[in-house]
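Hi everyone, sorry if this is the wrong subforum. Our group has a chain we'd like a structural model of before ordering constructs, and none of us has done structure prediction before. Sequence below.
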Amino acid sequence: MRSTILITGASSGIGKAAAKYFQAKGWNVIATMRKPENETELNQLDNVLVTRLDVLDEQSISSATDEAIKKFGRIDVLLNNAGYGAYGPLEAFPAANITKQFDTNVIGLLSTTRAVLPYFRKQRSGLLINVSSVGGKITFPLGSLYHGTKFAVEGITEALNFELNAIGAKAKIIEPGAIRTDFAGRSFDFQNDESLTEYQDLVQKMMTVMASAMEANASDPEVVAEVIYQAATDGTDRLRYTAGEDARKWMADRRELDDETFTSGTRQMVGI
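Answer:
Right subforum, don't worry. Here is the predicted structure as tokens:
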């Protein structure tokens, strides 16, 4: 019997790469996105259901999960991948953008998870995989909102794993580093106010460092897809999986160094 995975944010980047990877491995795939009418590739593949799911729209979440069960009969893995990054001085962010960052990366993840849990409970099996980031364990300047959401994803997943064990299911976390996706485009909300002059040196330096890191160290989204597949199929109780060479280095440094030493290294890297 084919296993089935439901993926949020499957229109591009990591989500799309994961959809294609799992389909190639013989899985049923529910590839969800906000605008499925724009998809031209995934809907040409066998055993792939492309359907609408907006993590900010509870009705779309319910409809997508119902459609998935109707089509394939079960959901074995939920991959919570949908999200984006908000960067910039906190003072420069409108309240609406702050709310949207947490609604998308945290509340939306919780809403999708809550919609699938009844099926896991009924099956007495299931795997929840949440895409976090190295930014769920370490921080960079200007990322208070983004890092806040990813730190939340880490805590939510780790705690929820205990509950899932009670119904025969598990939870796992994927922690990518820099990935060659459109994260810096439609998945990136950068806010700045040049009248806040005190922050501008930091803004310029950090944006230069981010661009350089993406150019030099970014991995392809297929790298993350392979790690996600490993997490879905290795049958272990392992909780966290890093993805990308830069991610492994950052995480190793964070484990080995105390707070003062690690943050001092970040300051030197940025030049502040």
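For your construct planning: The CA atoms of residues 95 and 101 lie 10 Å apart. The first helix runs from residue 13 to 24.
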